Amino acid sequence: MKRIDTLLGDITTVRADAIVNAANCTLLGGGGVDGAIHRAAGPQLLAECRTLNGCETGLAKITGGYRLPARYVIHTPGPIWRGGGHGERALLASCYRSCMALAAEYGCRSVAFPSISTGVYHFPLELAAPIAAAAVSACLSEEGNSVQHVTFVCFSQEVKDAYDAALADVRRL
Ligand code: AR6
What we know:
The chain is α/β, with parallel strands linked by helices.
């Protein structure tokens, strides 16, 4: 049975086949969850990222997990919120879809996501959570997708409440 759930915690401690990094287009590290993932994975992660030549907003690239409990890290640069009229919603949905597609390509059964773009990139949480829930739910229901279990790893109770509400709405549809 495929499932989506939420967890209050630190994504660097999550034992999933792949964890997702809310990166920037350089893929060379930064603050927030990106900084935490690079610190926990160790310098080999940055070394592999240097070989990737960056990534466009809304797309994703995969690396090893190195010292993390996760086998892979899927790096996706989310959109910077610029008022909502610059394709931000479509780009955020594309991040989740791109990560799910890469996870499936690598045979992952479990994937953990942070709340992409809702930190330094200022995407409003109440808009981001329903986009994330809908995009992941649609990908999970595709036949032939190896992914069985998706977790939204929430760094605060406020974030968890938003994702729990968004998932409840998706399940009602
Ligand atoms: N585990 C889970 N979630 C976390 C963790 C963690 N260890 N640390 C922070 N969060 P942000 P963005 C949450 O700013 O908005 C970086 O510098 C955080 O509370 O990490 O996509 C990149 O290099 C928030 O809910 O990512 C980019 O330049 C969520 O993760 C830029 O920030 C996303 O916040 C990307 O900004």
